[in-house]
């Protein structure tokens, strides 16, 4: 029994798969354990046929369980061993590749890097050093020599001014509190900023001060060690005398206004603040008096320009009012001339006064006629026919009536028209006079209105006046401040180094591409 029981399980190979081994061991254990429990746990069961047989069965079961446990342990160990072999194989592949290229490795297979050979100075290193000396150190040394041996000192005169606008209100505005005191116009500041840099101003100041002579005082001859050809005014350029015809021909002339304007931008610096309307001016010259004189002339010309702008603005403001006033004056003159011509032709100064006199005469004649008629009626009633006193009275009445009719015709009140060649009636004269008087009155009122408008426009133009106010008068420098030798030398060194570094990087980049 004991020899046959473990034989099927002993046939399992230790190299079987993990699932088959686990399933076989579990099945064997589950089949054996119930059998043992069934044979030993039944109460009242009959004792086995022999004690030796039971002992052998228990030993076989114990042996079988131990073998199953050992096989399961072997399966786990086999799995771990395979995993370790796979990891060692993965590690061994780069080590083998590292060993094939001839590099040294450590005991665990790690590669030891080769030793770096000692650095050597090559030809390109010497060329880079030589280029550094030529392109950087050379310009620095040449610039330092020129700045401290040949460059002349320059003096700077400072000035500051602004364009102010006065707007003084009228008496009614002052009473109402609507007056505007003073301010600054940004447009005027921009105009002045451009004017100071314009060739027009350069030509005006050059005509007065001879800027070419003032700015050429240091001399511009390269062969003379006392001259300063770089910073002095030279219309043909600073390099013309040094390299001859390579950069142009040295004409020795005064140069065009464009050349002087270009040099002006180097010697005259203008700084404008659009927010506050302030203008700051820096004028350089090789003598302190020259710098102050040029700055003063710039201020004077700027003042004149601002005054011209004020005059133009004032003329624009009053031009239309002046044209209207001139038209009103001409209309009034025409009306007065027509009225004067009428008076000369009619010999009547005032038809109204004349007609009043004529009406008085007519009224007096009518009174006399009424008295003569009354007297004639009395005589006719008291006297007989043929009385000689009646004839004179009748004649008197006729004469008065004729005179009244004549006076009425003068006034235009009589029947019929006046004979040809006689003077016009007073009614026509009065009508024409009134027409001329109305024209003259209208012309007089138009003239009065135009004159008032012109006075108002002129007062408005005078209230809105602009002027140049200097908050810093042109100063007289006491010590030179230009050129700033250390700053110029530093800039030369910086740009020379940047050019050299860019050149070296470009050369090495082309070399690496090849």
Features:
two-stranded antiparallel sheet, 15 helices, 65% helix, 514 residues, alpha+beta, 7 strands, single chain, 5-stranded antiparallel sheet, disordered N terminus
Gist of the model:
With 514 residues, the chain is an alpha+beta fold. The protein has helices spanning 7-10, 18-41, 51-100, 123-149, 171-176, 186-196, 199-209, 211-214, 240-243, 257-267, 288-346, 351-382, 390-411, 426-463, 485-513, and strands at 104-105, 111-112, 155-167, 182-184, 268-273, 278-285, 464-472. Helices cover 65% and strands 8% of the residues.
Structural class: alpha+beta
Largest sheet: 5 strands, antiparallel
Strand % is 5-15%
- Span between termini: 90 Å
Outline? elongated
User: What is the N-to-C succession of helices and strands?
Assistant: HHHEEHEHEHHHHHEEHHHHEH
Enumerate the spans where pLDDT stays under 50 for 5 or more consecutive residues: 1-48, 170-184, 416-423
* Tally of alpha and pi helices: 15
Mean pLDDT across residues: 77
Count the E strands: 7
- C-alpha Rg, in Å? 66 Å
Into which percent range does the helicity of residues fall? 55-70%
